[in-house]
Each structure stands twice: as structure tokens, then as C-alpha cells.
Design a protein that fits this description.
2 domains; Arc Repressor Mutant, subunit A; eight-stranded mixed beta sheet; alpha/beta; 412 residues; single chain; Rossmann fold
């Protein structure tokens, strides 16, 4: 049976193919997040007409109540992707406090024919399906599962946003590459991303309960557990409490001790100064502050798009007040006493020049977890980027580790 057809819109050098979920410029795909693409479709489909903010949010998030800044972020993303002006005129007009209007001339190209998948399209993961669940303390959490095969759960950490990160150069390869090995369950922790932002309890204990809620909602009995950054400590605590459910433990850029427990007074003072700048929302009047944080997470990025995406991720994924709570909860972490009690195959990855989690913290994990294997990574990036050698090492070593310790688990 032939595939269904759908409308194609053309404007300027762009072609918007709704069924293929694709925006093309001069024959080349323009990457967009899923919600940004939906926002563009809603505007172009009513081109020349003022669309209220409420109508747009209802169209893009039909079953979810979101803050208005999520829509504003989508519009900003679209303006960057389209270029700010076309022949001296913007594509999207803002009507203050009301909504937006797509004002560039638009031609409906009729119906698009089915396309034959190419090697590049086949390798791209399918669109994610986001679901929600509720914790015992009534906090709504968003989660998504992609791929097939034995499950790997990626513990939430700060600056997560299931939708915004879907096509970002910062996180997309974590899904694309790992998804070739097993299925991946990702989620936004409380007060982060698409999960509920107004939770009162932002603590290490609450993060463990979030993980417990997520894996139960997803119906997982046994799985591999990936903890990145402070997610490593959450993964460790969960594996101690539920050893029968964790088949493999993967720690990347993790630590067992927060800043308050590392015996480095100067580092604590620097951390407290950074918390103060976040608390007074210094980035609001000094946008360069976001670049300072970006340079801590991906200091060795040479791509302007990477830097721009992470700058934007800081504002769309978490509020200022919640970020301060996150930082203080991270600083108070101390699960070092649990390390000798772990009885699960463990691999520890850590960047040589990590500025977020000092390399010594990775060595502590590897030395004090019985039988753990340590893989140093030749990078200063706390978040591994797709094109750097460290990512290739991580990807290959992860696949080998999962297959080597596949007992009851079944990996491709």
C-alpha cells in the first residue's frame, strides 16, 4: 500500500516536508528539534495569519502544560535556523504579548511523494515517544525509550531536556550511537526539561526516588545503568539498594563526593561564587555568563554550533532558582562509603582534563569499586562530543563491556 501523502511548503530557499518531518535548504537538511519543527509547521500552515501564543502551545504540546518560555525558545531556534532576514524582512513577525505571524511568502507545493530511504536516513533513530509518570511525592516526570534490545537507563543529570536535546549536537549522538547497541531509556529529572519544575524537594534522595519511579513506570525488571556527572552517584546508590535489577554499571564523568567533601577549600569558594552568580541571575544582564558555564562543560569544543546549543540548553532546561538547588544538592553528595559494597560489573570513564568532575574523582571510583575497569579519556570535555576521539573510545569500550558481561542480558 502506498504511503500517505502530505503538504509541502516552499518559502525562500526552504522546503518544508511535513510527512518526512524535514526542513530542507538548497537541498540540504536543516536540523531542528521536534517541537521547533512542530512550531514551524503550525506557523507556516497558517502563514499570513496571527497565531496566538496559547494556540501555538496547544498545537505543539497538545497534552502537556508548559511554560511560555518553551515556545519563546522554539521561536528563537527557528530564527537561527532560517536566518534572521529574507530580502530585508523577517520570516516570523512577533506581535508583543499576543503571538506570532509567519510573513514570508509561502507556496504550497502540493503533495510530497514517498521517498526511498537512504543510508543516512536509515541510521537516524525514529522519532521519540515521550511519556509521563508521577512520583510518590506527586512530581510529574517525563521519559522516553528509543531503540530495541536489552535496556540501558541513562540517569538524569542537570541540563537535560528530552525534546530540546533530541537533535542537538551535544546529546544526539548519545542516542544515535548507543541506540545501535541496546534500547535507551532517558528521562528529565524533577525541575528539569519537560518534567515538573515546581517540585519542593530537590535533593539526592529525591533523585534516587525519581529513578525508581521511572524504571517501574517503564516496566523494566533488569537493565544496565549509565550514570553521567552527578547521575553517577545516583546510579551507585540505586545499585546498592536494588542489586538484583542492575546488570551493568557504567559511570562517565562521575564522582562519589561533591565539592563540600573533597578537602579543597578554594574549590568550594569558587563553587559558592558560581552559585551566587546563578542565584542573582547574572546571565540575564550578562549573556556571556552562559558561555562561562559552557566553557566548563565543553572547553575543547571547536564548533560554534556546540557552544550555541549548550548556551541555549542552560536557559531552556532549568530555571535559575532550580539550578541553584541542583548545584547545592550536587555539592553535598557523598556516597564514597558505598563503593566497596558494589557487586555489579562496573566500568568507569573519565576525561583527563575534566573541569566539572576532577579526574581524581574518577580514579577513586575505579579504585574503590571492586573489580571496576577504568578507561581514561583524552579530552577536557565533561560532555563527550561526537567528533572527538574520546567519544569513539567511549562508544567502542561501552559496547565491548556490555557484551563481555552479558550473562542473563542479551546484547546485539
Amino acid at each position: 500500500m502506498p504511503e500517505p501523502t502530505s503538504t509541502v511548503y516552499e518559502f525562500g530557499p526552504f522546503r518544508l516536508e511535513t510527512r518526512e518531518h524535514r526542513l530542507v535548504r538548497d537541498g540540504r537538511p536543516v536540523p531542528l528539534t521536534g517541537k521547533a519543527f512542530s512550531t514551524l509547521c503550525a506557523l507556516v500552515g497558517r502563514h499570513g495569519t496571527l497565531v496566538s501564543k496559547q494556540d501555538l502551545m496547544t498545537a505543539v504540546w497538545p497534552e502537556t502544560v508548559v511554560e511560555e518560555n518553551n515556545l519563546d525558545r522554539n521561536i528563537s531556534t527557528l530564527r537561527k535556523a532560517l536566518g534572521e532576514q529574507l530580502n530585508g524582512e523577517p520570516f516570523i513577525e512577533t506581535v508583543p504579548r499576543v503571538g506570532y505571524r509567519f510573513i514570508a511568502p509561502v507556496t504550497e507545493g502540493g503533495h510530497q511523494a514517498p521517498t526511498v530511504p537512504t543510508a543516512s536516513t536509515v541510521s537516524v533513530p525514529p522519532r521519540q515517544e515521550i511519556r509521563f509518570c508521577v512520583t510518590p511525592d506527586k512530581v510529574r516526570l517525563a521519559y522516553s525509550t528509543i531503540g530495541s534490545g536489552y535496556p540501558l537507563v541513562r540517569v538524569a543529570n542537570c541540563f537535560n531536556h528530552l525534546d530540546f536535546e533530541w537533535q542537538s549536537p551535544i546529546w544526539h549522538h548519545w542516542v544515535r550511537d548507543i541506540g545501535q547497541i541496546c534500547s535507551i531509556l532517558r528521562y528529565d529529572g524533577r525541575c528539569n526539561g519537560l518534567s515538573q519544575w515546581d517540585a519542593e524537594d530537590v535533593s539526592f534522595e529525591a533523585w534516587i526516588h525519581d529513578l525508581e519511579t521511572i524504571v517501574d513506570a517503564a516496566g523494566l525488571d533488569q537493565f544496565a545503568l549509565l550514570g553521567h556527572s552527578q547521575g553517577g552517584a545516583v546510579a551507585i546508590a540505586y545499585a546498592i539498594r536494588h542489586p538484583e535489577r542492575v546488570s551493568h554499571l557504567v559511570l562517565c564523568g562521575g564522582y562519589s563526593r561533591g565539592a563540600y567533601h573533597r578537602d579543597h577549600p578554594d574549590a568550594v569558594k569558587i563553587r559558592q561564587a558560581l552559585e551566587t552568580l546563578v542565584q542573582v541571575n547574572w546571565g540575564k544582564t550578562n549573556p556571556s555568563f552562559f558561555q562561562v558555564v559552557t566553557n566548563l562543560y565543553i572547553p575543547e569544543s571547536v564548533c560554534a554550533d556546540d557552544q550555541s546549543w549548550f548556551n541555549d540548553l542552560q536557559t531552556v532546561s532549568v530555571s535559575t532558582d532550580n539550578l541553584v538547588k541542583f548545584m547545592r544538592a550536587c555539592d553535598a553528595i557523598n556516597v564514597r562509603s558505598l563503593l566497596p559494597k558494589l557487586a555489579v560489573p562496573t566500568i568507569v570513564f573519565h576525561a583527563h582534563r575534566d573541569r566539572i568532575a576532577p579526574p581524581e574523582e574518577g580514579r577513586i571510583l575505579a579504585a574503590e569499586i571492586p573489580g571496576a575497569r577504568f578507561v581514561p579519556l583524552p579530552t577536557g570535555n565533561h560532555i563527550l562530543l561526537a567528533e572527538e576521539p574520546a567519544w569513539q573510545i567511549f562508544r567502542d569500550e561501552l559496547a565491548a563491556f556490555l557484551r563481555q558481561h552479558a550473562t542473563q542480558a542479551s546484547f546485539a
